[in-house]
Design brief:
Blueprint (H helix, E strand, L loop, with lengths): L1 H32 L5 H8 L1 H20 L9 E13 L5 E4 L4 E8 L1 H9 L5 E4 L6 E6 L1 E2 L7 E5 L2 E21 L9 E10 L7 E3 L2 E7 H6 L2 E7 L9 E13 L5 E2 L2 E3 L3 E8 L2 E11 L6 E9 L2 E6 L1 H6 L3 E6 L7 E6 L6 E4 L3 E10 L5 E10 L6 E4 L6 E7 L2 H4 L7 E6 L6 E6 L1 E4 L5 E4 L3 E7 L1
Parallel strand pairs: 1-4, 8-12, 17-20, 24-27
Antiparallel strand pairs: 1-3, 2-8, 3-7, 4-6, 5-8, 8-11, 9-10, 9-16, 11-15, 12-13, 13-14, 13-16, 17-19, 18-23, 19-22, 21-23, 24-26, 25-31, 26-30, 27-29, 28-31
Helix pairs in contact: 1-3
């Protein structure tokens, strides 16, 4: 209430200072010049109500003069309207138009009051009318429709060179690419995708499609080699398996070099039925020692906690994985010790139930004498249609020495050891290759007495 009173007081003071007082002074000067003052006229003029009516009359007169532009109180001004959208009038079902500017700048010149009104109604006032033009190249004028008369204007650019093409159609096979799959929950995988469109009035009814119509200028339509729906699975909600619908899937047309071609699509967009699954597999851990223990020391046992983990990924990748390797550097230990080791994700694995595992190693004295085994030498990665035969004096056998703790050596036999040479990318001929020895028990060390072997490959 106090604010309202102060406001009214300010209005009263304004009228009193700039209208009533000046008029009162003027009347006083006029009456003072009369040789024989008229007491009745003077009394009438001195009344407050008379002065208020005179002031109101003068105010109304000034308003009419300004509103009707009887007097010119201000000079002309200029206003620039930046980035005004260009509206094009043409038959978009029949033609394709290239070379159209998206926006232009409009400079308006006129009275400030008119410019203010023009600015408030400036939307959709810039047009290019292509009505009646035939396919070909044309220079057309860009027009600005004034919302207020008496305003001069200029458009930049004022002319556009456009090319009009007949619009043609073609049908293309529709495929899809799944994008942003890495943004799915780490336990989810995309199992299947179907491209669909809504059928009927029920928004829950869909029909599958495998083709789409493209429309555009003939030269662009002919460039299109493929059309793909980009299924963005980052829009999938929640972390549950099952089928989810992604609406308004983006469509893209590509030429033979993979460049995007600007054409229209019918339907304009499609939906995708995305089937999510959570393939998983429980696998054991495989201890892989790195380096060698100090002289005279050997590992007698190891223990994992947990002993196995669950891996998540695509089904095909999981099927090929039978265990996870846990690499531990043993070169600097001489007594029993427990390590915390980070698990590395194999290719195709999205996540592991446990990122870290603990492994406890038991260290003891090594056996003074190694155990020796005669292991048959084999070849791996030999090309189809070829055969390999070792050329040596040992009838294709390699002597392997196994070292470790006595308790470990007593549990190892020949079937636990393999010796081989890698024959990848070799053709017919005689080759000397490195002998590789592996054993199933990681607590022992394996060494071939002969590090190289000569093999003959025949067809």
């Amino acid at each position: 209430m106090k604010k309202k009173t102060n406001f009214l007081k300010r209005i009263f003071n304004f009228f009193d200072r700039y209208i009533i007082m000046p008029i009162t002074r003027l009347v006083f000067k006029i009456t003072k010049k009369f040789s024989v003052p008229n007491k009745k006229f003077e009394t009438w003029l001195s009344k407050q109500s008379t002065l208020l009516f005179i002031s109101l009359f003068i105010s109304i007169a000034v308003f009419i003069v300004v509103d009707q532009k009887i007097l010119n109180f201000s000079n002309q001004s200029a206003e620039v309207l930046k980035d005004q959208k260009v509206n094009v009038i043409y038959h978009d079902e029949q033609y394709v138009v290239e070379g159209l500017p998206e926006t232009v700048d409009v400079t308006l010149i006129g009275k400030k009051a008119d410019l203010y009104i023009a600015k408030q109604s400036s939307g959709d006032n810039v047009t290019i009318d292509l009505t009646g033009l035939t396919p070909g190249t044309h220079k057309v004028k860009i027009e600005y429709k004034q919302g207020k008369s008496g305003i001069e204007y200029s458009v930049n650019p004022s002319v556009a060179t456009v090319i009009i093409y007949d619009k043609i159609s073609d049908t293309k096979t529709l495929s899809y690419d799944v994008v942003n799959e890495d943004k799915l929950s780490s336990t989810l995988s995309v199992n299947d995708v179907k491209l669909v469109v809504k059928s009927g009035e029920d928004d829950k009814e869909y029909k599958e499609i495998d083709e789409v119509t493209i429309r555009g200028a003939e030269y662009k339509v002919k460039q299109v080699a493929s059309v793909k729906a980009l299924v963005d699975v980052s829009h999938v909600s929640g972390k549950t398996t099952g089928t989810q619908i992604i609406d308004e899937v983006t469509l893209k047309a590509y030429d033979s070099d993979g460049n995007v071609v600007d054409v229209e699509f019918v339907p304009e967009n499609v939906s995708a039925q995305v089937e999510l699954s959570s393939p998983s597999k429980k696998v054991p851990l495989n201890f892989v020692p790195s380096g060698t223990l100090p002289t005279g020391k050997a590992l007698s046992s190891y223990n994992f906690s947990p002993s196995n983990v669950t891996i998540y990924g695509d089904s095909e990748s999981l099927e090929a994985i039978t265990s996870l390797d846990v690499v531990v550097d043993i070169s600097k230990i001489s007594d029993d010790e427990t390590f915390k080791v980070e698990l590395k994700k194999p290719a195709g694995v999205k996540t592991i139930s446990d990122n870290f595992v603990n492994i406890s190693l038991t260290v003891t004295n090594a056996s003074s004498e190694p155990v020796r085994f005669n292991i048959p030498l084999t070849g791996i990665n030999l090309a189809e249609g070829l055969s390999a035969q070792p050329i040596n004096d040992d009838n294709g056998f390699i002597v392997v020495e196994v070292q470790g703790a006595s308790s470990v050596l007593s549990s190892i036999n020949e079937s636990d050891i393999t010796a081989y040479v890698d024959l990848k990318n070799l053709t017919e001929g005689t080759y000397t290759k490195q002998v590789i020895v592996k054993g199933s028990n990681p607590l022992a060390t394996y060494k071939a007495k002969r590090t190289e072997a000569t093999v003959e490959i025949t067809r």
